[in-house]
Backbone:
């Protein structure tokens, strides 16, 4: 009979667990679970009972669970069950265990008291700050921190002067937790007092000092700016870094201006972390200070400024970045060019276009290159103007940039430029530019493509399939591209990487294209706009010999539409 009862007690938790998982209406039997804890059931069964009591337990289960707090095998599961039970009996049981348990079991109970934020245990926890066992004293410090009250912080501050080195960090952690809770609750003055008490010590770890600085500044909000500035100017790099990170949590241009205002004269390492913070803030209020330092700062600072200006953006940053593209240091030049290429907005394109009128030809060339890099189509009128004036280097660079972006609207201007080109370099650049525009505007209709032969498989000599009819049907449906895939053509060579080869005629020209499996074959060829051909022919009739030859070479690469 006893064996049957024991088996029932073992099965009860499992049935309860199954009921919870299945979402059944019947709740687990709390009495049965409590009986398991009082029985001679195995540890696993008792642990399962604790787990379920953590879900459904009431004050009725507290005595049985409290009885396990000293059991080294089940104490952690008993606390797991007790902590979520919303009844004062739990707090009374945990406080009662403080004077009974020792070592790890006591430390665990202390942690549970902190988790439940039982302020009635403040005095008892404070008394344990001087415990001989380090894990007990440290647990008491952290739990007082979790309480987050002024009284808890006073207990911690009173114990700090005489605390052992071994326990000091835990005590500081408790104070920081208290301060954070007080600040979150609107009691900023009390929180600031705790942070200041920690900042003023020279016997606490560096991570405590940096956390205390952050807290002291944030607790004061705008009134904490003098502390932030003081740290930025300090010699302790870790505190400078902490100040930089703290600034990222503070909104407003006042903060930006305060940080930017201390850059001049700082060590390079300090300048860099503050510049990075200013970039991350993205506030244009930093631009005057950053642009000024870009002229006088060291190499590392100049490079950091280029990256920061890219993050901040705005047309006002462009002149400084352009100036940095002429820097003596390659890393700075690379950063500045990357920044100008990455910055977004029509205002950036407009600023670069305006720089095409700069008297410094090197800056004009840089502006041209950056316009091309950004594909700033809005700057095309300025590029075409630059292509017709100034020194040859600027003209050639402008022509190349225009050729990469120009469309039908700009085509006549490029033709006129070629007809009047004054140097071989300009002729060559304009010829290439016109070819590029013609290629971009060549049109191809499905009716212009005739498929002569198409094969798919292990080319050239392996297993393959004739897919001519299939490709012809795809083109007939209006497509000018075909995907080389098994889904489209089947798999004539299983396990082997295949190719698609298509022989076709487009606009009277015979072509052959080959792509790998997974790639897309796009049919080439097409018709050049009639307006392009007419403009080229008209210009060739009037152009001088060298320009005429270039225009005729462009015409040879076009295909006139049928009349």
Residues:
């Amino acid at each position: 009979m006893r064996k049957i009862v024991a088996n029932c007690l073992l099965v009860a938790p499992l049935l309860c667990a199954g009921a919870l998982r299945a979402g059944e209406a019947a709740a687990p039997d709390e009495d049965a679970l409590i009986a398991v804890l009082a029985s001679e059931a195995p540890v696993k069964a008792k642990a399962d009972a604790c787990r379920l009591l953590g879900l459904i337990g009431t004050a009725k289960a507290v005595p049985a669970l409290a009885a396990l707090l000293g059991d080294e095998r089940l104490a952690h599961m008993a606390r797991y069950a007790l902590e979520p039970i919303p009844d004062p009996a739990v707090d009374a049981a945990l406080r009662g265990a403080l004077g009974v348990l020792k070592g790890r079991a006591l430390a665990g109970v202390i942690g549970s008291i902190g988790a439940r934020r039982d302020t009635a245990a403040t005095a008892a926890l404070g008394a344990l700050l001087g415990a001989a066992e380090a894990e007990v004293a440290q647990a008491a410090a952290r739990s007082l921190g979790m309480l987050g009250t002024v009284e808890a912080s006073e207990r911690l501050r009173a114990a700090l002067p005489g605390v052992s080195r071994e326990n000091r960090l835990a005590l500081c952690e408790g104070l920081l937790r208290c301060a954070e809770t007080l600040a979150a609750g609107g009691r900023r003055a009390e929180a600031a007092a705790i942070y200041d008490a920690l900042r003023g010590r020279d016997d606490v770890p560096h991570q405590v000092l940096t956390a205390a600085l952050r807290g002291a500044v944030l607790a004061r909000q705008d009134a904490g700016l003098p502390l932030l500035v003081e740290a930025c100017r300090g010699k302790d790099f870790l505190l400078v870094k902490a100040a930089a990170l703290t600034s990222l949590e503070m909104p407003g241009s006042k903060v930006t201006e305060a940080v930017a205002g201390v850059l001049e004269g700082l060590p390079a390492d300090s300048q860099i972390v503050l510049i990075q913070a200013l970039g991350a803030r993205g506030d244009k209020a930093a631009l005057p200070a950053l642009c000024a330092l870009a002229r006088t700062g060291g190499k590392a600072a100049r490079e950091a400024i280029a990256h920061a200006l890219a993050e901040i953006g705005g047309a006002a940053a462009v002149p400084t970045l352009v100036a940095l593209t002429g820097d003596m240091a390659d890393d700075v030049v690379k950063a500045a060019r990357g920044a100008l290429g990455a910055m977004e907005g029509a205002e950036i394109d407009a600023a670069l276009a305006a720089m095409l009128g700069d008297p410094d030809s090197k800056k004009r060339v840089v502006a041209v290159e950056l316009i091309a890099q950004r594909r700033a189509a809005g700057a095309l009128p300025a590029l075409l103007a630059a292509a017709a004036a100034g020194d040859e280097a600027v003209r050639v660079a402008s022509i190349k940039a225009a050729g990469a972006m120009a469309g039908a609207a700009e085509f006549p201007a490029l033709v006129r430029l070629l007809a009047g080109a004054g140097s071989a370099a300009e002729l060559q650049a304009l010829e290439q530019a016109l070819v590029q525009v013609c290629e971009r505007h060549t049109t191809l209709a499905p009716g212009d493509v005739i498929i002569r032969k198409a094969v798919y498989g292990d080319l050239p000599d392996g297993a393959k399939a004739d897919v001519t009819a299939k490709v012809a049907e795809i083109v007939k449906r209006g497509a000018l591209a075909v995907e080389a895939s098994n889904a489209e053509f089947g798999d004539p060579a299983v396990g082997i990487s295949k190719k698609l080869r298509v022989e076709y005629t487009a606009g009277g020209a015979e072509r052959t294209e080959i792509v790998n499996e997974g790639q897309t074959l796009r049919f080439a060829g097409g018709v050049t706009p009639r307006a392009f051909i007419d403009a080229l022919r008209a210009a060739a009739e009037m152009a001088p010999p060298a320009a005429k030859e270039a225009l005729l070479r462009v015409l040879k690469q076009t295909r006139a539409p049928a009349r």
